[in-house]
Design a protein that fits this description.
Blueprint (H helix, E strand, L loop, with lengths): L4 H7 L7 H5 L3 H4 L14 H4 L3 H13 L2 E7 L5 E4 L3 H7 L8 H15 L1 E9 L11 E12 L3 E8 L4 E8 L4 E4 L3 H4 L5 H19 L6 E4 L7 H20 L12 E4 L8 H16 L3 H5 L4 H27 L2 H5 L2 E6 L8 H13 L5 H8 L41
Antiparallel strand pairs: 1-2, 1-10, 3-4, 3-7, 4-5, 5-6, 8-9
Helix pairs in contact: 5-7, 6-7, 9-11
Length: 416
């Protein structure tokens, strides 16, 4: 039954006309305000100014596109069903009041690559985790580990109650600590990534010096500068050339025929760029990356190699860290787990989908409705579409007059 006109007028709400909520909120009512989002992940300054940030962003987006679920397994450790829990909501829908599940997973991945070690902190739980292990997680945040203790860690986490990042000390059994499996390649002080960052910073410094507008000239005068008078004469000559270059429209000056000018800031050879390219190719090889993966033009085999060598180890580290921290021994004995699921048809060309769908349905691996859901179509109402059957084989005709356990042997002779 549709609501009446008076009921709609009484309960309707508009953000611009409700003065009590939208227009009269003062600074004290809503808390501190920021021009930029305070809980957003911030990379190190040296990483933001180089190509490293694009690598972190690419890997973070690829990890965030993989489904991570709180599931129940069967006796053979196979996926059985998803568990309707607060932890599953954090991993599939909303991690906290500021981040969706996808933004949270990207935050975890990029912070892990940038810092080397991160902590996932359960901010809100149903019960006190210090007193019981049977609690459900309502909110998750990514934190930076500041100090290590024997059984505790000091973590810097964003507090959404006051809008500030606070340093809190929590037991290691409560905090999910994840270490980058590529730590030796990316986060060690003398790793390939750190060496590349230093070379890029040096290259940027050289470029800034070259484009600073200075000429860096040495003027060789035709006399020896040893006395004070000769030194003053040389200084006057230098200022004269500066005034000529500054006052000229095209930057042209004249000198004496006996004077010689040498320019220093135009080196004929500089192998810094070659070193940067060498370290970049080495880093790509150690990470399982290629320039085609970053550009989005890689073929299926290259992407599979990238997912197996780069994305999968990071996902295993994230899921195992959450499994050992957020699931108690009792929950694990009940076959609960945290698993990741990647779409196997993500890299399949459109022309091959029909052949793959035929093989999966013919061999009774997936039903027709499961194939339709992968392709983005709504399920069919035909009951046959939910059954694992081979449509290419005709179903046997069952005689309703013959019982299933009754034997029909036509060669048997009747007994006298």
């Amino acid at each position: 039954m549709a609501p009446s006109f008076s009921n709609r007028i009484k309960h309707a709400w508009n953000a611009f006309t409700n003065d009590k909520v939208s227009r009269n909120m003062t600074y004290l009512d809503t808390g501190g305000s920021y021009g930029l989002r305070p809980d957003r992940v911030r990379l190190n300054l040296s990483n933001e100014r180089s190509i490293i940030s694009s690598i972190y962003t690419r890997i973070g987006i690829d990890i965030s596109s993989v489904d991570i679920r709180h599931v129940r397994l069967d006796e053979n450790n196979r996926y059985l069903s998803s568990i309707n829990s607060g932890l599953n909501d954090c991993l599939s829908l909303e991690a906290n009041i500021d981040q969706s599940a996808q933004a949270f997973k990207q935050d975890v991945a990029m912070s892990l690559l940038d810092k080397g070690i991160v902590a996932i902190v359960p901010v809100e739980t149903s019960l006190n985790p210090l007193n019981t292990a049977s609690y459900d997680i309502k909110s998750l945040r990514v934190g930076e580990i500041l100090t290590w203790y024997p059984k505790h860690v000091q973590v810097r986490v964003y507090n959404d109650l006051n809008g500030k990042k606070e340093d809190i000390t929590l037991p290691k059994s409560l905090v999910c600590i994840i270490e980058n499996p590529l730590y030796a390649v990316m986060n060690e002080p003398n790793s390939t990534l750190q060496r590349l960052i230093r070379k890029l910073n040096l290259l940027d410094a050289i470029d800034e010096q070259s484009s600073s507008g200075k000429l860096d000239l040495i003027i060789q005068l035709p006399y020896v500068i040893k006395s004070e008078a000769r030194r003053l004469q040389a200084e006057s000559r230098r200022k004269d050339i500066e005034e000529q270059l500054k006052g000229s429209q095209y930057g042209i000056a004249y000198t004496d025929g006996t004077e010689k000018i040498t320019q220093l800031n135009r080196p004929a050879e500089n192998n810094m760029l070659a070193q940067v390219e060498y370290l970049t190719n080495m880093l790509y090889g150690q990470l399982g990356l290629t320039a085609e993966v970053i550009a989005g033009t890689a073929d299926e085999k290259t992407m599979l190699n990238y997912h197996s060598r780069t994305i999968k180890p990071l996902l295993i580290a994230i899921t195992q860290g959450m499994k050992r921290t957020f699931l108690s021994k009792t929950a694990r004995s009940q076959m609960q787990s945290i698993e990741f699921f990647r779409d196997p048809f993500e890299l399949v060309p459109v022309g091959s989908i029909a052949d793959i769908a035929d093989k999966f349905t013919r061999n009774e691996i997936l039903s027709s409705n499961e194939i339709r859901s992968i392709l983005g179509f709504k399920p069919s109402s035909d009951p046959k579409a939910d059954q694992l059957i081979n449509s290419n084989i005709p179903e046997p005709v069952v005689d309703p007059m013959v019982e299933p356990n009754q034997s029909q042997d036509t060669n048997q002779q009747p007994q006298v």
